[in-house]
Amino acid sequence: METITVDSNPTQEQIYHICERYFELSLKCVKNKNLMDAFQDPAKTVAFLTDGKLDNTYVWIDEGQPWEGCGMRLPQNTRVILDYETTWPTLYFTKKGESKETITIKESPLFVQVFSNGREGIKTLKRELLSENEESKVILPFNTKELENYDAILMMPCFIPNKDMLAKVFCRDNKEVAEIVLSTS
């Protein structure tokens, strides 16, 4: 097997690291029910995705090795919903109180869309197509101090392969042509 060297920038390296750690966590969850239960515990999920710590203590230690997190940075008090049918992350900021205005940051391949759903209806705040070497900068319509007036919910794709299936594809003459993993995510 030959290793291919790819020129990458710090942003691509960071994306690669987060994805690698998230897939590693997802695969480990299938082999360890206690790990899966801990990861899917709403009180601990953010710690698994960020630095692996909750109140300065690692949330998971396996054979003496602590889970040091996936490396994401999330607003404090973010709730995470793991969804088998979601392919790309979506971050929602919903204003507390009666107004229920929601700011949505929706990602897809090389594309970021930010929109607001409030009294004025749905309004696009930003729609940006990115090249592979760019990072997107999203400016929220409120200050850091005002963040405490919003609930943050992150809808994350769930790649734990316990919901996948192995499908064998045959021709009519009963000869197998392919063996593929059909993922629900």
How would you briefly describe this protein structure?
18% of the residues lie in helices and 35% in strands.
Which features characterize this protein?
alpha+beta; two-stranded antiparallel sheet; 185 residues; six-stranded mixed β-sheet; 3 helices; 35% strand
Helix fraction?
10-25%
Task: Please write the string of helix (H) and strand (E) elements.
Answer: HHHEEEEEEEEEEEE
Largest β-sheet summary: 6 strands, mixed
Q: What is the 3D form?
A: globular
Q: Identify the quaternary structure here.
A: single chain
Stretches where pLDDT falls below 50 for ≥5 residues?
Answer: none
Q: Could you give the order of strands across the largest sheet?
A: 5-10-6-7-8-9
Number of strands: 12
Cα-based radius of gyration, to the nearest Å: 20 Å
